[in-house]
Amino acid sequence: MRRLQIILSRLVWLVPTLFGLTLVVFLIANVVPTDPARIIAGENATAAQVEELRHELGLDKPLHQQFGRYIYGLGTGDMGKSLYTARPISQDLLSRLPATLELTVVAILIAILIGVPAGVISAIRRNSLTDQVLRVLSVSGLAVAGFWLAMELQMFFSTKLGITPLNGRISGFGPEKYTGFLIVDSLLAWDMESLRDTFMHLLLPAVTLALPAAATLVRFTRAGVLEVVNSNYVLYESAMGMPRSLITWKYILRNALVSTVTQIGLIFGALFAGAVVVEAVFDWPGLGTYAVQSIMRSDNKAIMGFSLLVGFVFVIVNLMVDIVHTFIDPRTLE
Amino acid sequence: MSRFLLGLIVGFLSLVVSISSFAQNRYVHANNSSYDTLDPHRVNDVARVATRLNFYDGLYRWVDNPPRLIPWLATDHTVSDNGLVWTFTLRGDVKFQDGSLMTAKDVVYSMDRMLKLKSGAGALFLPVLDIGSTVAINPTTVQFKLKEPSAIFGSIVSDIFVVNSTLVKKNEVNNDWGAAWMTNHVAGSGSFSLKRYDPALGFIGERFAGHFAGWGPKYFDEIEFRTVVETNTRIQGLIRGDYDGLDGYLAPDQVMRLKKEKNVQIIEAESMRVYHIAMHNGRPPFDDIDFRKAMSYAFDYDGYIKSIMQGTVSRNPTIIPNNMWGAPDGLAGYSHDMKKAKEYLDKYQARNPGPIRTITIGTLAGFSETEQTASLMQNSLKKLGLNVKIESAPWPVISTKMQNPDTMFDMLPYWKSTFYADPNNWLGELYGSRYAPTRNVSSYKVAEVDKRLEDAMRTTDLNVRKRLYQEAGKIVFDDAAGIWIYNTKWFGPYSTRVAGIRFSPVGNGQDMRWGYVK
Amino acid sequence: MSAFKVLFGDRAAAIGAFLIISLVLVAIFAPALATHPADVAEFHLDKRLQAPSMEHWFGTDRMGSDIFSRILFGARITITIAVIAVGASVVIGVPIGLVAGYYGKWIGGAMMRTSDVFLAVPQIVLAIAIAQTLGPSVENVILALSVTYWPFWARLVYAETRALKPQIFIEAALALGASDLRVMVMHILPNIASAIIVRTSIGMGVTILTAAALGFLGLGAPAPTPEWGRMISEAREFLPAAWWYAAAPGLAIFVVVMGFNLLGDGLRDILDPKIRRGSK
Fold first, then answer.
1. Is residue B201 within 8 Å of residue A285, measured between CB atoms?
2. Deepest in the core among B6, B149, C168, C199, taking most CB within 10 A?
3. Could you give the 3-state DSSP secondary structure of residue B131?
4. CB B123 to CB A192 under 8 A?
5. Treating both helix axes as pointing N-terminal to C-terminal, what angle do A253-282 and C123-134 enclose, rounded to 10 degrees?
6. What is residue A320's three-state secondary structure?
7. For residues B162-186, b (16+ Cβ closer than 10 Å) or e, as one string?
8. Measured CA distances, C78 to A56, B390, C73, C152 (Å)
9. Domain extents in chain C
10. Do the Cβ atoms of A33 and C133 come within 8 Å?
């Protein structure tokens, strides 16, 4: 019941938060030094043509009216059209979301695969050389600039050694697009070549993204495990004669899991922020490059569109993390 | 065991398949702008010209260097005496990619559509044509009734890309003239038809065997144009063999690097793309001719061309490219002479005592040449005791700012592309009053120049026009209205496995009709 | 709480402090420490893109300027951005969080909802939007970062204040007649100070990384300012040949952020061993 209460109240807060976000982004996107009518009209247009186009597009109406029309459109699922491509924003966003999601999910998996075991080992062998080394590495992982690391890795592995692709999600256009997730689509088409190609292309970007996340996970897993190892009930069970390994599996890893889940919400945020620059370096056709491109071109509707989408995804992810948390750790329900 | 065998066979087959697709005559091009839309009437910039040139056809076509117009969908035209009625004869054997025949009514629809959408090349036609002024006299004759005489009309009809009106009308939604549908689809007659399109990635075109112009013995079966934003990545890709061709306006450092690669060929051609610094003639102290002359003598042309451009470009003393008719003869151009610069500055100061305000130079973010130019200028002006502030912004922001005299920078280095090969493209558009403030961003308004520009628009006599442009050009030059630096050389980077690339300054090397794999 | 742990805490903090102090000293004495101090604004077109040598320790850049000297001067920009952006966001966010956590209910709810709006999208995205709107410059980067960072502090202080408010010593102070303001400033603030300090150090590192990313995307200072992120983006064109061009500023960023991270970690271990969670 309490769980339900939490979920509902969070969902209810979703609406005003997103509304506020839309308003803030709308203000930012419209106080721009770029004139969208001029851009669409093109280099060769005369001033009169630009004004006509401005009127046609409704860009000469007062700001609050434009905002109102936008909100109204949202109700019908219409996010407007991109100023540059005349394509519906929702279409653009939907086609780019899988690219970023696929990258982010693979990065999280890599981060967990590296970070959690490292954190557990670090905790169990507390203060040993292994622990010190891992701690230094994890601090380093958070000190490296993502875009710089991406560039260096690309230069070394793709250019110098030639063993990884330079950029993009796949050579060519890939298999028939059903979901937009290349791994899934390759499997659906049973296209092993595409699958292999996809993984090769995912390698560098996902690893670059995963590094700071892995570093964070090492620290939190370590802390979480230490908390358990020192706790009284483990002492008790140990005194009661329970074998060490059983204690490890039962409590320590479970707490490691709690720490990890807690952090996934935060990590997701950091991963998306990292994706913005990593996508830029690797020409990844995802939301990150879309975001930067839209902002640089002052494509107002696109900016508002992806801000809403990202905000929405974030809130949902955080909510899911919190829900899972209530299952794992009943104390949070208090 | 049988599963293992199956896997082996599948693996072998996929290997065979990928080898055979390699043997196909495919061309892969990496472009730095994205192909956001396939609609030929929506965009007119040179960076995205690949979709227009390869999927569609225009009435005439610009080819080769120096650029010349050849008959394409139209075979010839006549102009009435008053220059207001242009009648074009069309070919009768042009098939659209869906098999239907092209007629004059498709041309009428295409022109009206361009005028209605008010974007892309429409901006070139709006001043001289209204919707409905284009008439189909018969299936192979189309007539344009202009509002005012325009000598350049014959040069810009190459930008009338003809769409399949029946097909587009079928896909109209809410009276949008097919705008939504045309973003993702092709309704043209061009040399290639659309095979695959992803706005985030690019497009794939496949050869249209039934194209009216026929095909030679060798051609590309498929062309793929991908978007790769980062210059360095494009170059690496060409070196690795991922791509067969790139855009041809790379920095000299990159060109030098590519020249050393065995599997890369660089095709050189003098282009028509002048790099200049526009000055805001309407804002003091730039409204004073002596001050402008001081600026003109302060820039280190040789240093820039020799060191930063590594001698790969030629000095262009005026705004009209050296290789274009109508360029004034025998002008050496302003040189880097700090003594002269100081003299003119002193002359200005004598009439305008007091400190000179900080000068702003705008630069295009991501185009290091503009930043280097600005730094060079800043350095020279510092020696004259002048303070300079450099501002950087992406092209859309710069574009907006430069088209408004209030926000336009004091100085702005940029390139003027070729939309049509006529002196009006440079001299007229950049220094004629009628083009202020959107194309004439220098706020340069001189009656003597305007008169000659207008006269040149009214007559189609080439000798008269040439004289008029040369005279006007000399006046602009003497007025030091801008700082003209160089004419770009096109260095087309292509893989050594392709040939037949036909470069024209208007086509930007993305015209794949005549290319083939060796 | 083994002796080793205190030692590590101490050592990390010490190394971190050493790095930070070095950074500050470098920034202050850049003109004296640089081998070619004039190269911040001057260039030599005949010496473009030279590899590291005895004369140019980190090589030269695309305009022929000495990279080593430019990096030293770039430290000034880095510190300025970090200190002002973090300082401003702390000065804005902490009081808001205090008030919100103390009074709770409507005011608290309203303030937290407002900060939620800013936290809904990653900081860098909002910062890019703001910086782009205002125009690329160091001042606007600082502004963009401050505006998008204060919610973190507000959230942090809000949570800590809410936890402290019901405690006995607060009730006692109120019973003795202390005003709300006095309680907030004299009783609550000192108790959450260590959390703030630790986060500040780490926050500096994060801010430097975000500022560098903005510079990389072209939103920072214009040429020829020697901002580290911008230098890396300039270098891209010339890789892999001119590898030093990107390596130097990248390593500079790494060392500086490492310093702040180590300091923050060490401080955390020293000041309050109970604080274990929360990277931001």
1. yes
2. C199
3. coil
4. no
5. 30
6. helix
7. bbbbebbeeeeeeeebbbbbbbbbb
8. 46, 20, 9, 21
9. 15-31+49-278
10. yes
Alpha-carbon distance of B277 to B341, in angstroms, equals 17
Under 8 Å between Cβ of A122 and A130: yes
Pick from C125, C257, C277: CB nearest A291: C125
Peptide bond connecting C224 to the previous residue in cis, omega within 30 degrees of 0: yes
* DSSP H or E stretch at residue B498: strand B498-499
Chains that touch A (3 or more CB pairs under 8 A): B, C
Helices (H), A162-252: 182-188, 192-230, 232-239, 244-247
Q: What share of chain B is helix, strand, coil (3-state, %, to 5)?
A: 35, 20, 40
For the residues of C88-139, what is the DSSP string, one character each? HHHHHHHHHHHHHHHH-HHHHHHHHHHHHHHHSS-HHHHHHHHHHHH-SSHH
Q: Classify strands B359-364 and B388-393 as parallel, antiparallel or unpaired.
A: parallel
- Residue B79 — left, alpha, or beta (φ > 0 → left; ψ -120 to 50 → alpha)? beta
Residue A289: closest C-alpha in chain B: B200
Length of chain C: 280
What tokens appear for B346 in the block? 């002193």
Residue of A nearest to B39 (CA): A85
Which chain B residues touch A44 with a CB distance below 8 Å? 44, 121, 123-124, 419, 438-439
- The 3-state DSSP composition of chain C as helix, strand, coil percent (nearest 5) reads 75, 0, 25
Task: Indicate yes or no: CB of B237 within 8 angstroms of CB of A283.
Answer: no
Output DSSP code: residue A188.
H
Contacts of A172 in chain B (CB under 8 A): 224
Closest-CA residue to C164 (of C187, C182, C197, C144): C187
Residue type, A2: R
What's this model's pTM, rounded to 2 decimal places?
0.85
pLDDT truncated to tens, each residue of chain C (280 aa)?
454 455 556 777 888 889 999 999 988 998 888 888 887 777 787 788 888 988 888 988 888 889 999 999 999 999 999 999 999 999 999 988 888 888 877 777 777 778 878 887 788 888 888 887 777 788 989 999 999 999 889 888 888 888 787 777 777 878 888 787 887 788 888 888 888 888 899 899 999 999 999 999 888 887 788 999 999 988 988 888 889 999 999 999 999 999 999 888 888 877 765 544 433 3
CA B272 centroid distance within chain:
9
Burial of residue A331 (CB within 10 Å: 0-12, 13-18, 19+) is exposed
Provide the residue type at B125 as one letter: F
d(CA A64, nearest CA chain B) in Å: 23
Nearest chain A residue (CA) to C258: A143
Q: How many CB atoms lie within 10 A of CB B248?
A: 24
Rounded to whole angstroms, the Cα distance separating C142 from C89 reads 10
Give the E-state strand segments of B96-221 in sequence order: 134-138, 141-145, 192-198, 202-207
- Among residues B347, B96, B368, B121, which one has the least CA distance to residue B230? B368
Give residues with Cβ within 8 angstroms of B74, minimum separation 6: B59, B60, B88, B89, B90, B91, B142, B157
Q: Which of residues 164-193 of C touch B (CB under 8 A)?
A: none
3-state secondary structure A123-144: HHCCCCHHHHHHHHHHHHHCCC
Nearest to C248 by CA among C92, C104, C56, C71: C71
Determine how many CB atoms are found less than 10 A away from the CB of residue A179. Answer: 11
DSSP for A277-305, written as a single string:
HHHHHHT--SHHHHHHHHHHTT-HHHHHH
**C219 touches C136 (CB < 8 A):** yes
ipTM of the complex: 0.86
- Residue B274 CB-half CA count within 13 A: 25
Measured in Å, how far apart are chain B's first and last C-alpha atoms?
Answer: 44
Contact call for A40 and B119, based on CB within 8 A: yes
